[in-house]
Amino acid sequence: MAEKKDPRVLGIICVVLASMCYGITPILSNVVLKGGLPGDFLTRVFGSAPAWALIDPARAMPNESFTGFGMAIACVISLLSCLPGRKSLRVTGKQALHLCLFGGGGFAATMLLISYSYLCIPAGMTIVLNFTYPVLVALLSAAFFHERLRPIGVVGLVLAILGIALISGLGAEGGLDLGSKPALGIPLALLSGVAYAVYFLAGRHSAYASLDTSVSNVYITGSASLLSFAAAFITGRFRVPPTAFIWLVLLASGIIGSVLGIRLLLKGIRLLGSTPASALNTLEPVFASVTSMLVFGEAMGLKKIAGAALVLLGALFSILAMKRGD
Description:
By secondary structure, the protein is mainly alpha-helical.
């Protein structure tokens, strides 16, 4: 008789693959924001550097337009995913308000802040700092929802703060150069974690918490797209993707993040449980850092690597603290 396979192995594979997907999407975002790929990467991988794929500032998408089109593609994908099961898109007025305000607003703020940070610091570092959100979720839950902040959560908070200090260069000789891009990119990345923590908590405590994920995603990504387009028009930074290559990268980002990544993660959650899957998903910033180094040549020194490890360890402890509070 053949030995029965452990479903947890498949669950681990699914979450790791999901983390890889989410680790690739920041690089695709950078391609759109920078208007192409570095010549040395193209030459190294493909043997040549065609002009249509090379970085060209004239083809770079403004952050607000990039987020608007990216969220619009994700909205269409979410809508198509509702069709096979004929899922109803009907929601109450209160649910619609919360979906647009907390869901779309929180998600749009997250994506915009992340995209601004990409232009200042390496993508991998941005995603690491964004992963302070589990720590922030624990703090906000204690402050607003009267959930007890457990000792392991406090340890996670301390580790995250130490990690942020190392990444920021605080305490080093000369300190952080306030005129440098990192001085702007680091707080933007941390603010993206705050925005995502609000978005995360809204998914647990708002009027739409009981909705099917595919249905809520239609409204969240749709409203996030509209808010981003509004910001683009107000600031005079609206721009349609200028080339077929940029459109292709946007579409690839939507499929990898909104289809493959989320499906693999949900499958992993079903097989492993939410807490082990969330803990394993902290590999996402690792994959983002590796791909950032391979494609754009972005690298972190030993001190920043140690800081990143502390931030991710803090996030892991916070996730475990949430489980103990269930």
